[in-house]
Amino acid sequence: MQNDDATLRTLLALRAQNQRIAGYHARQEIERLQAAAARDPKRLEPFGFKVYSQNDEDGIVEEIFRRLGIETGRFVEIGVQNGLECNSLYLLHKGWRGVWLEGNIGQRGPIESKFGEILGRRLQVGWGYISRDTINHVFRGMGADDDVDFLSIDIDGMDIYLLEALTSRPKVICIEYNAKWPAHLAKTPVYNGELRWTGTDYMGSSLKAMAEVAAAKGYRLVGTNLTGANAFFVRADLAADLFPDPATPEALHNPPRYWLWSDHYVNIGHRADFGPYVDLQAD
Questions:
Q1: What's the pTM value of the predicted model, to 2 decimals?
Q2: Overall fold of domain 2-280
């Protein structure tokens, strides 16, 4: 029994050591990639950081709105799970207000438990899976069909169809793309409103396909994040010369570097949580 305990302690120590080594190499790679991108001062990758986002999206979103001169506003985020790893919780902490739309009703308890003090005031939550046939009705029902500053879409598959169907015109959109596809290929899965991601690489549209749909709706591609998870679009009438040019998938595509999440971003600091904060008590 003692030998078994000693072996377990050794294995746990080796795992912790390997995790530290992997984290160190991941941080080096992130710094290398950010430095390369910084040769163009308009690139967004060097500004990326994580507060509550899955990867570096929090910092990229912050930099986009800094360039647009917007300090606070309204957001809608589709697909937040329990709310502790998403693209708008950091915005809430910065004084924004908005709407979460979550399909998994099993997350209702965790969200109401964690965020009860701000629900109905700074944050509204709608429940149910969103489809291309329901998105505009849901937006109207939540009072989010007009004057939305930031929209984040992450439903692991049919994201492009929500973007295509949307009649609202948010200033900035963050949307998941499938980075496995090279920048020059337009690939879109056949629409299936019942599709749920199973952990495979059949998980959404290529960046080029996203950019084509966004351009048709009056949006300009302004960047992607380092892990190749999310693309960022700004309304063309607002983008001016604030963002990289050329604004093409070929110029702004980041390939899949999901290992940076598992080796670095998921291990930053303590486990995410939420509680009462003085500045969030006031309406």
A1: 0.94
A2: Rossmann fold (3.40.50)
